[in-house]
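Records of this kind hold a single protein each, on a pair of labelled lines. Below, a sample record shows both lines together.
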Amino acid sequence: MERLSQRRTDPVTGERYHTIFRPAPTPEIQARLRQNPRDQEENIEKRLETYYRNVKDLEGFYEDAFYVNADQDPYVIFEFIESCIIKPLPCKKF
């Protein structure tokens, strides 16, 4: 929630900022930042509710999908995805 709801965009330059992780460098830029209506907490909650309501059906549909831990270096993520596509690891069927 924090990651999405704190995103802002500068309408002049199109540059994207985050109020916590990447704040605007000057008060002038900070004053003109705008939030996308989709990033308001109530809208994020609706999207999350829809996701959790449908996630089991999606997991069943995409049985052969693999889990990617995206909280790593982009090169490591790329290598993992490439290895799953080119030479998939054997997996246990449930």
